[in-house]
Structure prediction request, 93 residues.
Amino acid sequence: MAVGRIALYADQHFQREEHMLEIAAYPWLTQHRARHDNFRAYVAAITTGTAPLPVVGELLSWLVDWWVGHIGTEDKQYRDHVQGCAEAVASVG
Ligand SMILES: [Fe+2]
Ligand SMILES: [Fe+2]
Prediction:
C-alpha cells in the first residue's frame, strides 16, 4: 500500500535526520523527534487499522501539509546549528 511506502520513506528520513541532530548535539532534538513521532504514530495507526483510513484526498492533503510545514519551518530551525558541525553534515552525505 502506498501509505506503507510513505511510512517507510519517512521513517528512514527521520532516522537519518535524528542521527545527524544527535551528532550535532542539537538542543531541541527531543522536541524535533516528538514531531517526527507524531507523524510516525499517525501513519502507523492508519496502516495497522487502529485509525480509520481517510479518503485519499484527505490523506494526501494531510501529508502535503505536514511535510511542507515541517520542512518549511521545523527543519529550517536546525539548519544553522547543524551547518556549524562538519561531522553532522557529513553523516547525511
Ligand atoms: Fe525533521
Ligand atoms: Fe526532514
Observations:
- The mean pLDDT is 93.
- The chain has one domain: 2-91.
- The pocket of fe (ii) ion (ligand 2) is lined by residues 13, 17, 71, 75 (CB under 6 Å).
- The CA atoms of residues 15 and 33 lie 9 Å apart.
